[in-house]
Design a protein that fits this description.
Largest sheet: 2 strands, antiparallel
CATH superfamily of the largest domain: Winged helix-like DNA-binding domain superfamily/Winged helix DNA-binding domain
Order of helices and strands: HHHEEHHH
Number of strands: 2
CATH class of the largest domain: Mainly Alpha
Distance between the termini: 14 Å
CATH topology of the largest domain: Arc Repressor Mutant, subunit A
Helix content: 55-70%
CATH architecture of the largest domain: Orthogonal Bundle
Strand content: 5-15%
Length: about 130
C-alpha cells in the first residue's frame, strides 16, 4: 500500500480509537494534530484507497484499512525491536521505526519477524501483531 506519513498517522489513530461514540472528523483532526479541512482531505484519500468509509463525518476503517493497520503495527514493532537490540534506546527506536514502518512490504516484515526471533512484544511491552 502506498501511503504518506500523514495517511499512516490517520490509519493508526482511526484503528486505535476507542470510545462509546463513533470517530468523527473533528476528533480525528485533533488526535492527529491537524486542521479539520486537512483531515477531510486525508480521509477522502484513504477512502479512495479503500481503507476507510466516511458517512456524515463518521469515519470507520474498512477490512482493508484494518489489515493496513496490522501491517504497519507489525512492521513498526519489528523494526523498533531490531533497532533496540542493536543498541538504540527504545524511545529513539520507536521514533525511527515511525519513519519507515508504513513503507515496508508485509512479506519482508514477516521475514524480519522470524529473523529477530518472533518476539511477542516490542521494547515498550506492546504485543507484536502478526498480520
Amino acid at each position: 500500500m502506498d501511503l504518506t506519513k500523514k495517511e499512516r498517522d490517520c490509519i493508526i489513530k482511526i484503528n486505535e480509537y476507542e470510545s462509546a461514540f463513533p470517530l468523527r472528523l473533528v476528533e480525528l483532526a485533533k488526535r492527529v494534530g491537524i486542521k479539520a479541512p486537512t483531515a477531510y482531505q486525508l480521509v477522502k484519500r484513504l477512502s479512495s484507497k479503500g481503507l476507510v468509509s466516511e458517512n456524515r463525518g463518521v469515519i470507520i476503517p474498512t477490512k482493508k484499512g484494518r489489515q493496513a493497520y496490522k501491517d504497519i503495527i507489525m512492521a513498526h514493532r519489528c523494526v523498533e525491536t531490531l533497532l533496540n537490540r542493536a543498541g538504540v534506546p527504545k524511545n529513539c527506536a520507536c521514533a525511527e521505526a515511525q519513519k519507515i514502518d508504513y513503507k515496508l512490504t508485509p512479506s519482508y516484515v514477516k521475514l524480519l519477524y522470524k529473523f529477530i526471533g518472533s518476539p511477542k512484544n516490542c521494547p515498550h511491552g506492546k504485543p507484536v501483531i502478526v498480520s
